[in-house]
């Protein structure tokens, strides 16, 4: 093999490694779930919510709400208020989960393609209290559901009122876009 051809081949291989490395770094930079600082802040604002989330929600959604298996991420930059995040993205396993699709279909008016984004704490509570945790919604008390909503919103950067989120104030607490 001529020396020039060998150098060109090594250059191309080296370039491929550089591109692969940059893609890997770019993918690694995408935060899934809440950061440790967000979790600590949320825990300080809703200890009960953190405990219920860890015991009931983390089984499917991960300790940081990053999503596991077919369960979508529920905390962090790509989570609330959009749900489902992207109806066109077929690489999201949650979009092909029959049980999740059925839940989504129940939450939207006839003829509409997808439900509206969560805009307030009331929207989030309505979904959580009606559909989560899958298979045993009735096992979680309303006070615990409100605590989970408080925890999740605090992890998303929402400033919670004293005493957390509840029926009296949920409609006025906006979910920030991240």
Can you describe what's shown?
Helix 2 (36-45) crosses helix 6 and helix 3 (47-61) crosses helix 6 (142-155). Residues 15-28 and 83-90 have low confidence and may be disordered. The chain has 178 residues and is an all-alpha fold. It folds into 2 domains: 1-30; 32-172, Cytochrome Bc1 Complex, Chain D, domain 2 (Orthogonal Bundle). The protein has helices at residues 3-28, 36-45, 47-61, 98-106, 121-131, 142-155. The chain starts with a helix and ends in a 23-residue tail after the last helix.
Question: Layout of SSEs?
Answer:
Layout: H1 3-28, H2 36-45, H3 47-61, H4 98-106, H5 121-131, H6 142-155
CATH topological fold name of the largest domain: Cytochrome Bc1 Complex, Chain D, domain 2
Question: From the helix content, strand content and strand pairing, which structural class follows?
Answer: mainly alpha
Which CATH first-tier class of the largest domain would you pick?
Mainly Alpha
Count the domains: 2
Put simply, the count of helices is 6
Radius of gyration: 21 Å
| Share of helical residues | 40-55%
Q: What is the N-to-C succession of helices and strands?
A: HHHHHH
Instruction: Give the biggest beta sheet.
Output: none
- Arithmetic mean pLDDT: 77
Content of β-strand? under 5%
Find the count of extended strands (DSSP E, 2+ residues). 0
